[in-house]
Each structure stands twice: as C-alpha cells, then as structure tokens.
Amino acid sequence: MEIRPPEPPPHAQSWSQGLAPRYIALFLLVVYFDQLPRRPLAIGGLLPSAGGLAIGAIFAVLLFFRPLALSGLVSRGRLEDVCARTFGPGAAWLVPGLTMGLAHVVWFAVAIDYATDVSLRGLVGLGLIDASVLQPQRFGGRELPGGLVLWVAVVWSLASAFLGLLTYRLVAAVMAGYQPFVAVALAVAAGWALPKASGFIPSGVDPLTDRAVAVGHGLAAAATMIEFLLGFFATHAALGVDWGRASREPADVEIGGWVGIALAALTTGCLALLIVAGAEAGSVTDADSTGGPANQDRPALAATSPAEPELRLTVREALSSGLLPAPVAGILFLVLGVGLLGPVCFAPLLIARFMGILIPSAPSWAWTLLGAVGAWPLILLRIPQRLDLVLTGLGITIGPMLGVLAADWWRTRGRGAASPGIRIPALMAWLAGMVFGGVLAVVAQRSTAIVPTLAAYAVACLVALPFGRRAVESQAPPESETSTDRAGPPHPPPPERPE
Predict the structure, then answer these.
(1) Which tens digits make up the pLDDT trace of 389-427?
(2) Domain spanning 15-479, CATH architecture
(3) Dihedral of CA 280/286/291/293: which sign?
(4) Domain ranges in the chain?
C-alpha cells in the first residue's frame, strides 16, 4: 500500500535539519558507547563485535524506528495518539503513560550517574580533586557511591530538572551546536588507540560472569552487541512517532533513519571498540615489556576506576588507564560530561509528559521533581553500573510495545481512529512479548548467544498481527491527531513541552 501522508505542517523539517542530527546526538552520548564493547570484545574480538553492531543497527532502523516514524508521519499524531489507536484510549494510563514514564525515570538516573562520574573523572585528570573521593564506600556489606559523588548527583538532578522545565528550548539549541565537540573527543581517543588496537586478543573470559568461553566466540559477541544496541534504542525508538510527525515526507524518515541511527550507531560504536581494544592491547604490551603489571606505573587518573570485574573493558576505564596523558583524558571526560546536559534536562520533561497522563491535573513541575527524586535510589544502589541489565530490562518492556505498534502499522498503514475502551488483544500481545523476553533474559545470563529484546519484539508483533484491524482508507485521523498548532518542531528527546 502506498504511503500517502497529509500535507506537512508548517514546522515540518527535512531529515538533515531535525531527525538525523538529533539521533546522531543520541549515539554520541557516553551512555551509549561506554559499556558497549565490554562483553563482545572479551568473548569475540573486534570483527564479530563490529559485525553484530552493524546487524543491530539495521534491526533498529527497520523494525524499531521505521514503522513508528511512518505511523506518526501518516497520522500526524504523537506517540500518545498512536498508542490510543493501537491499545485503546482506556489503556493510555499504562501505554504509554506509566510504561514510558518509568522508563524515563531510569534513563534520568543513568544520565545523571554518568554525567557525575565523567565530570569528576575530568577534574581528577586535570589535578583539581583527588582521585580517592571517587572510590565507592561500603555500608552494610554493600558498595555505595562516595559522598562527593552522591552530593553532586543530587544537586545536578534537581538543577537539571528545573533547568529543562524552564529553558528546554535554549538547552536544545545549545546542545545542537555542542555535539560536534563530543564527536571530535571520541575521534581523538580512537586515533590515539588505533596503532595498538590491531594487537588486541580476546581474553576468552566473560567479564560479567568470570566464566571461560571459547576464544573468538563470534556468534555470542554479535548477539550481545545486538542486544545492547536494541535495549539502548528501544525507548528512543518509541519517540520516533513524534519525529515522523515532524517530518515532511517518507523520504525524510527513510534517509534520516539510515543516517541518524544506523550510520551513527555503527560509527560511534566502532570508535568505542577501537578505544577499548587499543587500551587493552597496550596494557598487555606494557606488562610484557616491563615484566610486571601493566598498570603499576599508570597516572593517578587510573585510581578513579573501582576495582570491580564488571567494569573492565569500558571506554571510561580505557581513558582512565593511561591510554592518554592524564590532562588530555581529563579534558575529554569533561567534554563527554557536558554532552549529557541535554538528556539530563529533557528526561524530566518526558517523565512529566507521560506520567501526566495518569493525573492530568498535576502540574509539570511536580512530575519533574518526583522524577528527579525517583532517580536517587537507583544512583545510590549503583544500578547504572550494570547498564547491560538495565538495557535488557528496558528492551523486554518497551520492545514488545514497539512490536505491537509496528504490527498495527503494517495492518492499517496509520489510517483510522482509535476505538473506545481498551483493545485487549494488543495488551495481551504486549504481555506475551514481555514474558517471553523475560524468560530469555534469565537464560541469557548463561548463554550469551541470545537477544531477549529482539525476541520479545518478534513475539509481540506476531501475536498482534492476526488481531490487528484492516486499513480504513476513507477515514481521516481525528482532529486531535492532525492538529499542529500545539507546539513547534520537537527538540529530542522531548518533541514538545508537556501539556
């Protein structure tokens, strides 16, 4: 069926103006590429990891992003409108309300934790604070962040929440011009590591479980890469509906998706692989040449790295291990930290937008404050340090929702209005996907050649397809979906201010 979107609204943008640069900025976040190489490099090496990254990028565009963005383009509706058509208006409090609201509380905690960590590492590299203040402290048999880390995270979370609420358009404009500096910082680190990266040899030990695996286990490395990328992108793919709404024509969605998502995810991911591979290969070389531990003569910046096995093979650890001179690494850390200003300001707005569906009368500032406070326990428990588990949890929750929305798009091509009440088959398909993905996520802790997020998406989509509605060509979208005078063009992550 031919895709025939209505006339573009006045604020519609081409792929090169809005969709592509904003998604490129997403994949320039240190949250994306920091822990990406950790497990795949250790068990598979460079080429299988890069191959899995390429496959994951294709899945992200074709399965996660494209159906939702085209649905927004054809209906000119927001994510809330598309979910209402698929799941029924009566389920709005759950999908997207509670689901997307809680997901962004998690994302806010992750962004604040990373912003705090890389910024303080930068100050350590420049010699402005002592590295010992960043070491975790034990309390009741559990490791917790240090006092300075917690204080900075609390202040930053409150300040960024209100900054985003009051001046989010200004923040979006500033960050649009800042992201090239992050790209330059990442390229500098990769260029520094490139001469040593060719000497990287997989350890054959899974850094998350400390279990030995077959060296060069390419399938497991590729599957782990795909799972990480799709888990990271799932929440942001849902907002692709809003980007489709703000696009002019289908070509903008197609080109913007391949450039802003596939190419950007592959490029930044490969740079991260080179950085970590170069640092690890250089560490082995130094150890062989000196006859002792590779890190014994490393600068003080290395002291910022908690001695936990699950934190090995990350970009942060590579930069902290002596790959670069300490002052240079410190500057790069500060650049990466400032690059997180956008997410830490926008996530509370998205919390207010989606949680506001539950209680529409509640003011936006109350939801942003609750979102900031809700992130504190996650930071205190150091949940973002196991980002692979966080992303799998988000993937098996949001992924099936994307699968049901994609099935609805393939059946209706975005035509037709929402039916009253709740569409039980759609909710059951979403639940089936979550349950199946959850079971696979448990199994994946032992067998790395599993992609729970992709499996959860596929099950939900296949269950939803037989119960989907046929396209209704003669029925135009309701006025609430086609209206474009509520706000200007979206500024990712949030396309518009919560109403």
Answers:
(1) 999 999 999 999 999 999 999 998 877 777 788 999 999
(2) Orthogonal Bundle (1.10)
(3) negative
(4) 15-479
